[in-house]
């Protein structure tokens, strides 16, 4: 009885010969049909990976007589070069698409940057121009001979808080440690306990201007907001340092150490804490502007703030 290979149809006289053939050329398990009396026998090969017919060209699918001829054929197969060329063309096209996509995205970013720069340029140009009549109108609305509601205003930095506040108030401020300047600004400029120290106003967060009382001109004037905030921080930190020097022995050791670290950090121009405190104080003054100014005066200032930049 002949035994045929199911893959290449070669014939063998015995199932053992067929088994060796499959093991050598096809690397797969073989089911051999024997005569009925011998029954069907499954010949198990060692545990190796089952592979496809190794006589077929991977480029053109042509079937060769054995794997050696298949290998020689693949070296010169026309489809091999065509496939590689097509692959290279595809990669080139994909690269072109990626480059084009990058160009478009870069162009959009440049256009957006130009628009933002143009907007900033326009804002700065407008912010640096104040019509003299508008400025005089604002100053006149703020005060009349240095008084608001018949209260004499003291210029920023001339408050002498060490002589005004009690020892209990000073200790309360220092106990707040890093928040001491926030509480001191609120107490002095906002709370209403010291109306003569309502000498600074911020009525618009977007404007680059704020207002402070000037003793030489005996009236409120519009000033650069950032410079005003710097003056407020410097003036109040001077007071906190003075409070600390006066009542240091009465403070708890831990709190005394913390307030000293805070004072040192605020004195360091490279430390960002000073800028953080300026932003916090700006919000304190703005959010409490109705406590600092009478409603009529506040409404007038807010209205004028909209017209100050022309």
Describe this structure in words.
This protein is mainly α and 310 residues long. The chain has two domains: 3-78, no CATH class; 130-305, no CATH class. The chain contains twelve helices and nine strands. It has a three-stranded antiparallel sheet with strand order 7-8-9. A two-stranded antiparallel sheet has the order 1-2. A two-stranded antiparallel ribbon has the order 3-4. Strand 8 and strand 9 (219-224) form a beta hairpin. It is elongated. It starts with a strand and ends in a 5-residue tail after the last helix. Mean pLDDT is 78; it is low at 30-51 and 304-310.
Summary, kept brief:
This protein has 310 residues and is mostly helical. Helix content is 56%, strand content 9%. It has two domains: 3-78, no CATH class; 130-305, no CATH class.
Structural shape: elongated
The SSE order reads EEHEEHHHEEHHHEEEHHHHH
Uncertain residue ranges = 30-51, 304-310
How many strands in all?
9
Question: Which terms would index this structure?
Answer:
310 residues, mainly alpha, 3-stranded antiparallel β-sheet, two-stranded antiparallel ribbon, 12 helices, 9% strand, elongated, disordered C terminus
């Amino acid at each position: 009885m002949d035994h045929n290979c199911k893959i290449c149809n070669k014939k063998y006289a015995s199932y053992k010969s067929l088994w060796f053939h499959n093991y050598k050329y096809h690397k797969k398990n073989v089911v051999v049909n024997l005569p009925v009396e011998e029954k069907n026998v499954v010949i198990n090969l060692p545990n190796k990976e089952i592979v496809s017919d190794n006589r077929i060209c991977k480029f053109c699918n042509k079937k060769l007589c054995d794997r050696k001829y298949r290998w020689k054929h693949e070296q010169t197969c026309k489809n091999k070069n065509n496939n590689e060329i097509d692959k290279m063309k595809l990669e080139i096209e994909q690269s072109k698409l990626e480059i084009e996509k990058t160009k478009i995205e870069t162009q959009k970013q440049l256009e957006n940057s130009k628009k933002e720069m143009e907007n900033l340029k326009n804002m700065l140009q407008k912010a640096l121009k104040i019509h003299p009549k508008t400025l005089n109108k604002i100053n006149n609305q703020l005060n009349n001979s240095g008084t608001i509601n018949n209260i004499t205003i003291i210029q920023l930095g001339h408050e002498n808080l060490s002589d005004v506040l009690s020892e209990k108030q000073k200790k309360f401020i220092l106990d707040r440690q890093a928040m001491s300047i926030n509480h001191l600004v609120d107490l002095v400029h906002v709370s209403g306990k010291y109306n003569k120290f309502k000498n600074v106003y911020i009525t618009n967060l977007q404007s680059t201007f704020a207002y402070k009382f000037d003793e030489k001109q005996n009236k409120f004037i519009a000033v650069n907001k950032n410079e005003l905030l710097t003056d407020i921080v410097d003036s109040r930190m001077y007071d906190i340092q003075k409070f600390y020097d006066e009542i240091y022995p009465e403070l708890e050791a831990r709190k005394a150490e913390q307030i000293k670290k805070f004072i040192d950090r605020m004195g360091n121009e490279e430390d960002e804490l000073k800028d953080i405190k300026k932003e916090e104080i700006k919000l304190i003054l703005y959010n409490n502007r109705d406590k600092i100014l009478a409603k009529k005066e506040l409404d007038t200032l807010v209205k004028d703030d909209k017209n100050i930049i022309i």
